[in-house]
Structures are given as C-alpha cells and as structure tokens.
Amino acid sequence: MKPLRSILLLWLSFISLAAAEPQVTVKKIWDKAPHCAFTDLIHNKDAWWCVFRESAAHVGGDGKIRVLTSPDGETWESAALLAEEHIDLRDPKISIMPDGRLMLAMGGSDYRGGTKLLGRQPRVSFSKDGRTWSAPQRVLAENDWLWRVTWHDGTAWGTSYRTRAPEGTPEDKGEWSLTLVRSTDALDWKPVTTFKIEGRPNETTLRFQGDECLALVRREAGDKQGWFGRARPPYTEWGWKPIGRFIGGPEFTIMPDGALWAAGRDLRPAPDGPKTALGLITADGKWTPSLTLPSGGDTSYAGIVQHEGGIWMSYYSSHEGRSAIYLARIRGLP
After folding, report:
1. DSSP character string of 183-227
2. Residue 281 in contact with residue 230, Cβ under 8 Å?
3. What is the pLDDT of residues 264-275, one digit of tens each?
4. What's the rounded Cα separation, in Å, for the pair 123 and 243?
5. Are 247 and 189 in contact (CB under 8 A)?
6. Per-residue pLDDT tens for 121-152?
7. Under a CB-based contact definition with an 8 Å cutoff, are residues 105 and 159 in contact?
8. At a CB cut-off of 8 Å and minimum separation 6, what does 153 contact?
9. Do residues 141 and 119 make contact, with C-beta atoms less than 8 angstroms apart?
C-alpha cells in the first residue's frame, strides 16, 4: 500500500502544481499590413475594440490607425481606418469618455514619406459607435507626445514627454521632460507637474487606486530601468522606485485583490532577445516578469483588460515573420 500511497501523493502534487500554472491561449487576430504594431484594447458595450498602427515598417511612412471590433474575441472585423495625409499616426490608445464616447489618443509624426522625423504633435479622435471617427485633431504643442490617457472621476489624465528636438536628429541632446497633464474634454490640456526623473523618461501608463495615482515609466538613457511612482492629490509630489529592468510600451492593471500586473517589452540577452512579458510589480516597486508570451523580434506594446476573472491582452510581435497583432487570454494568475 505504501508505494501506491506514494504514487497517489506524487500525482496529487503534480495536479496541484499544474493547476497553479496560468492558463494561456494566444490567437493571431490581424496581419493584413506589412507592419502591424503598437496595440491597445478595451471592452465596451458587449464588444471588444482593438486598435493599432498599420504601415510599411516600424518607423516612417504614413502610418494609419486600424480599429478592430469583435463580439466575443474570436471573430474580428475592421470597424475603421484613420489616416492623415503626410502624417504617421502612431501608438493609438483607446479609452471610454464619461459621456460614453470612445476616444483615441495617438502620436502624429511628420516623416513626409521618408524615415527622418521632421516634427510631431499629439492627435485625438472621438467616436460614438467605434466605426465613425472624427478627423484627428492636434492637441498640446509641437514636439509633445501624449502617450496614453486614463479617465478618473470625469477627468482625463496623461503624461506628455518632450524632447529638445525631433528624436534622432543631431539637435536632440540632453534630457527629455515628462509632464503630468489633465483635461476635462481631452482637447484642452493643463500641466500639473513635471516629474523629477532623469534618463530620458517617455512612455507612461497611469492608473488610479482610490485617489492614489500610480505611474509606470519607460526610460531611454542612463541605466534604462523603468520607474514606478505613486502620488496622492493634487499629484504634484511623487515617490519613485526603479523597477529593476528596462520596460518598453509599459502597461499595467490593478486586480481586485490589489495585485499590479504589468506587461511590456522585456530585453533579454541573445539568443532570446526582446520578448513580450507579463509579471507582478512587487511592493518594493520591482517588475518581475513571470509569463512570456509567444513573441520575439519587434514586439510588445500591450493593451490589458480584466475580463471574466482573468486578463485579456493585445500585443504585437514579429516572431512568425510579419509583424502581426495577437490576443492572449490569461487565467489562473497567482
């Protein structure tokens, strides 16, 4: 009986261990352009909405914003395609306004068909049904980049990073500034504070936990570690901690139990290279990737939605050749 009991206990241990592993399903949902990238995702009025950029390559050209919709996350169709002549529309982020409209915030870069950046200014667009969108409208100022918008108690919050000159030009020297901004209509933005962060801070996601604002920031220089910060109203004084590693296209969500799950581009030594990864932000501010999604090469820029007790996550990757859009469904996170 003892050998049988040992086998049974071993089997039960194996089942318990297997049950503790997250269940992940991944599906490619779009690859109809040479380069599809920089995603975001929401669920609104019983429908899914995924937005991303389509173009010929990662940089340059006249990028367009594709809006996909799905009733169930299985079957997807194109709902809209936003374009602006001579402008590369980039990094769309979608949100739901207090009046129920959908909003897109995106970068508008001027490449004039080439790869040299001549200038940029953020754009916003609005829709009542996700299919008909207003023409992209400029906000903030030339050389700003409003990277993501988060609505809280009727107010839109975001950060805009600003370079001294267009990125990649000889005049782009020294530090970049990252400013917290707010708006009631997503058109007229007011500065709140400029973060005291060195290392060329840029892409930032904000989330609210009660009245506390949390921020996850990408840094492009110095040790390139991302930073994680917290602030109470009026959000002018922030406490910052390095997350321990680089993160590109940072996105995170606050689970019902308070756990912070973050996703982004995780740079790893060869032969692995860049991956799209998901992991906890721990109490000490460190980001610890624990789940690597099928990905590689040009990849990341996730959108996260909590749904049916798990996480649904859009992202892009070129690990199967052409840069394409993927949807991951993740259940059983510890």
Report:
1. ESSSSS-EEEEE----S-EEEEEEEEETTEEEEEEEE-STT---E
2. no
3. 999 999 999 999
4. 30
5. no
6. 999 999 999 999 999 999 999 999 999 999 99
7. no
8. none
9. no
